[in-house]
Amino acid sequence: MLDLQAIRQDFPILHQEVNGQPLVYLDNAASSQKPVQVIDAIADYYRKDNANVHRGVHRLSQRATDAYEASREKVRNFVNAQSDKEVVFVRGATEAINLVAQSFVRPNLNAGDEILISHMEHHANIVPWQMLCEQTGAKLNVIPMNLEGELDLSTFDELLTDKTKVLAVGHVSNALGTVNPIKDMISKAHSKDIPVLIDGAQAVPHMEVDVQDLDCDFYVFSGHKMFAPTGIGALYGKQDLLEAMPPWQGGGDMILSVSFEHTQYNELPYKFEAGTPHIAGAIGLGAAIDYMQDLGITNLANHEHDLLVAATEKVSAMDGVRIIGTAKEKASVLSFMIEGVHPHDVGTIFDQQGVAIRTGHHCAQPVMQFFGIPATARASFAFYNTMEEVDALVLGIKKVQELFA
């Protein structure tokens, strides 16, 4: 059992009023809040250890390097990678996907080859592959989904062909909350020697992830959705694949030696970390992992599941409200439409009640097009949310209906 009262004390931002109402923060799929443990870790670095990493023999640089590399080890443990050489710090899932697209896929892609994604992907897992297809003449194929927001796995099997050069799919849909059966999908892709990238940005805050058990080739995620700072994330890649890949960006720290005639690149993972990294962000990411693991990720997931089940039951029972995304396996997200009301108006009225939800297409416009809607209102939960905040969500919907009656 989680001590929610104690947990909420760790999140200073939650203790404020918005428009004269206590803040109810239900926009965690967009970005999560940060506990004091993360805030203090970042502040301590800037107060005590602020120096560049890997480049100095003085004490501050050594301490900064130790903290930075300790966070890499925490990420390795968090996703159960075999080696810290398989963990590359990036700005977030978006940068990691672009890195894999340009450094791993593009050198092996020719006109007529195929890239396979799903209909429910975030734009970050669509646009880089479209760009790659434009650059090479390859074709982008899309796994369809049904009205429940689940992937059509029979069509998926048909789309895996000898022309498929990579499968890139989200672990959890940010717009629908659907948890995709990625382990089975990875196994089927690998049976045809197709490498797989998993976008885990919406998964790692809400469930345990074991990349060795999944056997994915690449797994990407962002820190800001898992209680860490913005501008930091991680790319996991199998070591043999990363070693064979050329660097994506050139600059300092990703080299061993440079002359005007030749450059020798650094070893893993540094050859993919050009320039001064987001040191404070990496330290904050490590602190966020410590915080989640201290509470127990399974405990956090169970509480969030209870919140989602309660919210789904209550909203489903309301007249004039349609839930978008009713997959059997979901995590954290409840997207809905209120009859006769544009989602942007819904969000504005919620804000007047002090309730923060997300409205719009959620960087998943193909999902909106599939359901024939312009946008949805989306409530998304984290472990610091309460059942009373689920009730606030329901009251917010009732307020909208009253105003637009």
What does this structure look like?
- The protein has helices at 4-9, 36-49, 59-79, 93-105, 127-136, 153-159, 182-190, 211-214, 239-244, 279-295, 297-316, 343-352, 365-371, 387-403; strands spanning 17-18, 21-22, 24-25, 87-90, 114-118, 139-143, 164-170, 196-199, 218-222, 233-237, 255-258, 263-265, 321-324, 333-338, 355-356, 358-360, 376-380.
- Strand 13 and strand 14 form a beta hairpin.
- Helix 2 (36-49) packs antiparallel against helix 10, helix 11 runs parallel beside helix 14 (387-403) and helix 12 (343-352) crosses helix 14 (387-403).
- The longest helix is centred in the first third of the chain and has 21 residues, at 59-79.
- It contains 14 helices and 17 strands.
- Strands 4-10-9-8-7-5-6 form a seven-stranded mixed sheet, sandwiched between helices. It has a four-stranded antiparallel sheet with strand order 13-14-17-16, with helices on one face.
- The model has no long low-confidence stretch (mean pLDDT 97).
- It has 405 residues and is an alpha/beta fold.
